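Weekly puzzle thread! Below is a chain. First person to post its structure in token form gets bragging rights.
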Amino acid sequence: MYKKISAILVPTILAIGIIAFMLYRVWGDLLEALQHMVPAYLAAGIIICLIAWWLRGWRYQTILKSLNYPVSITVATACIFVSQTVNLIVPARLGDFVRVFILKHEYNTSYSEGVSSLVVERVFDIITIALLGAVSLLFVLNARSEFYIIIFVPIIACLIFFVVLLFIGKNSSKNKYIQIILTMLHEIKKASLSLRSIVLLGSSSLVIWLLDILVCYAVVLMFQQQIPFAIVVLAVVIGNLVKAVPLTPGGIGTYELALAVTFGLAGVSPAVATLIAVIDHLIKNLITLAGGIISIYYFGDWVVPSIKNAMNSKFGGEDTSGR
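Winning reply:
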């Protein structure tokens, strides 16, 4: 019990602490900046974010189809909404386990296929984000040296992963756990390395992350700031790559801090940089939360016990499913 509580409470306190510190040190300037915002850009950011979510659902539908599980865009998008909503509430990306359970319940996928679909999505996300960051560095002269490490390490790791997939054959093993890994690698290869998959997943991932960047850029315009687009790209890239390390639920706190630091490169005041970072993440998280709640009702009340099971399996609790 104490292990479960501390595993959730400590990262949550860390997230709240980071945000509180960022807001406290610029509170006066922050209130002044709010008075000069242009609400129309907020509406634009919300619309762009909703379009990006629809495209995420389409991409995940494509991944599942390549694994021979045809689903509707609604189901695919709802799967992502639920898993990402759980990720906003609890640490360690437990929501990803929930998505695997949903696929198992609704389409009788194997657990390895559910995990494989997640890996394909994550790898295309990471490689796309990192490549966008690498391009943005060409236009940012005073980028911190740490940014190069944050961007190029994932690129190298993803390239190595793709090379491994490319050369892996139809091997098998008598060892249960090695065989599970081999099975997943074959499923990931099947879903990601065909010419069709590379074109569809690569192009859709690029558009998804450009839309995500445009949400942030809309927030920049909302506060009437003249920040070069390359800086906005770099900020969102660094924020998402830092957020990929699950220190806090949904990367709350670490994402905002990364964005605010990056905006400082363009001479943006700490108050405005903090405000842009917080509002950008707030828009994305509130839409995720709303979509997650609607999706839970869409799938049915069995989803909530699945979320509890994911937490119990991660933190060593007992299974509550009754099975």
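Puzzle host: Confirmed. Bonus trivia for everyone else. Confidence is low (pLDDT under 50) at residues 317-323.
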